[in-house]
Design brief:
0% of the residues lie in helices and 53% in strands. By secondary structure, the protein is mostly beta strands.
């Protein structure tokens, strides 16, 4: 039924950069919106970025101008390029695929990858 596998998380210093990858299998890019959410301890899950098959992107206010989402259809992979990282970006980042014709609760999620930004 499909699978999303994340990679690229780790520990970086404030001001640094990191690129997350989300490899999709059994999930068609044309039928889904792909993106990233994040959740820090004690905080609500937050939309980071999303991208449609047509290339339309959307970003959370806290990451606009710093993060970029991109998709490589040939590799069935979605990326999140994170620049100018701040300590408040520390969170578990989850990749998702949301079917266009189904309610949001049918979205698929990756296992999450930890991003820690030190001061």
């Amino acid at each position: 039924q499909g699978q999303l596998v994340e990679s690229g998380g780790g520990l970086v210093q404030a001001g640094g950069s990191l690129r997350l990858s989300c490899a999709a299998s059994g999930i068609t890019f044309s039928d889904n919106v792909f993106g990233w959410h994040r959740q820090a301890p004690g905080k609500e899950r937050e939309l980071v970025a999303s991208i449609t098959n047509g290339g339309s992107t959307n970003y959370g206010d806290s990451v606009k101008g710093r993060f970029t989402i991109a998709a490589d259809n040939a590799k069935n992979t979605v990326y999140l390029q994170m620049n100018s990282l701040k300590p408040e970006d520390t969170a578990v980042y989850y990749c998702y695929a949301a079917p266009l014709v189904l309610p949001r609760r049918y979205a698929r999620w990756g296992q999450g990858t930890q991003v820690t930004v030190s001061s």
